[in-house]
Amino acid sequence: MSGIGRASALIGAGTVVSRLTGFLRAIVLVSAIGAVTGAGNAFAIANQLPNNIYAIVSTGLLTAIVVPQIVKAAAHDDGGRAFISKLFTLGTVTLLAVTAVAVVAAPWLVQLYAPKFPPDQQALATAFAYWCLPQIFFYGLYALVGESLNARRVFGPFTWAPIVNNLVSIAGFVVFIVLFGQTESVTDWTPAMIALLGGTATLGIVVQAAILLVFWPKTGLHVRPDFRWRGVGLNHIGRLAGWTFLMVVAGQIAGLIQSQVLSEAAERYPGIFVSQNAWLLFMLPYSIIVLSIGTPYFTQLSEHAAKGRSDDVRADIGRSIRTLGVFIVIATFALAAASVPASRIFTDSREQASAAAVVLVCFLVGLIPLAVLFVVQRTFYAYNDTRTPFLFTIVQCVLVIATALIAQALLPVEYLAAGIALGQSFASMVQVVLATWLLERRLGRIGTASWMFALGRFTLAAIPAAVVGWVVFLLFGGVDGWTASDKLLGAVGAALIGIASIAVYIGMLALLRAPELAVATQVVRRVIRR
């Protein structure tokens, strides 16, 4: 196997294991604080804050400075030692400053993201935030060290470290359950309980970063503090990542509005925590299928774009969309058929699973467009065009905000999360249509009709497959059956429904004589071999 093949297999396997352990982490967390409780939503807001802030910092600092220049630095006479020292000094100082400001501003950040929380719930979320916001620094350290390791072709630790984070979190959450049981009411939390839950979440990120430091000697670099930051790339932030940075900021603003609206959801109804877990389920097929299969196609497409071979780029676009489509279409329909058992994994009752399933299905409406967008957007990146993706992402963000506000105005509180999820999917559909149109203006005809016809054929095969999956769910007793009675049984039921749907889907594709079936079979065999 080639070095790239081994690296791809290692990264792919790490991604799968990371997602599975992340699922287990979410299951244990729900068992500790509940899915539709005031405490659950309070922790969800607090633990999401460092991710939101880090997303902006990482794009402004890491994407703009580190990623484009770290490989170039390896070609320096000193092997990049001076650059890495400057980089780590700048990065550490920036991350410490941002983290300190965020911790001080914790009460205002909670109020900004969850203005509709009652006072007791805001107080609990703020207490959690004090424990969670230090994650910003360790997320940044993990990225700094990880990019340096990747630049030196040490790929494994960066991919597998999050698994250890999940395991640490699982262990800490289990200890919480043993000591305190499930604690749902916002008024029952003691400082010790808050410290254990919030501290566990942050400890996992600390360990995740520390593991990478263990592998640092493999880089052969010796880092020392260096405050002479000239040459790191500060003067090129706008040129390197200005549009990308603005795109992330726009996305964060849209997410902020969604969070503010969702904070209105009362206890017992799907809110912030349920939406996060539904998104986790939604992203599972996207991560495994789109990222693992689509990334090699993007590499090939980029090579053709760099050589000016536009005909090959057009062929790559159609081929990659059809290959992704044959997998992502059945993943969408099978997960929709298994939405109740799958949602039961992250909820505490049948009723909660049914309500959460509606949110999941609303998200799934946008999964196929999102897979197509992956290819279209990265085609612009292959031509070093980040301005156009910014433009169609701004349209998407405006629609996300507008649909969230419409949901807030028109929908009863129990359907607020579902309305926001459906608005997100609608925005994605508009975004991919606009992005495809702009790409055709740039490249000419890109065979849109051909791959749209292929997606239609996959959908035609997936509909009866989903119907069979739903019938299996009903034969298992439906909402009142064993697949919705327990978290573990929910996972088993979702798997069985998925297997039944996939079997019918393959049969339908064979009946339709879909040429993509042979390609999909080859992809699966190649992945299994690796």
TrEMBL record:
The keyword Cell membrane applies. Keywords: Cell membrane, Cell shape, Membrane, Peptidoglycan synthesis, Transmembrane, Transmembrane helix. It is a multi-pass membrane protein. Its main location: membrane. InterPro entries: Lipid_II_flippase_MurJ/MviN, MurJ. GO terms for biological process: lipid translocation; peptidoglycan biosynthetic process; regulation of cell shape. Pfam families: MurJ. It is found in: Cell membrane. The chain crosses the membrane at residues 26-46, 52-75, 87-110, 122-145, 157-180, 192-216, 237-258, 278-299, 320-342, 354-376, 388-410, 416-439, 451-476, 488-512. GO terms for molecular function: lipid-linked peptidoglycan transporter activity. GO terms for cellular component: plasma membrane. This is Putative peptidoglycan lipid II flippase. It comes from Microbacterium immunditiarum. The lineage of its organism: Bacteria, Bacillati, Actinomycetota, Actinomycetes, Micrococcales.
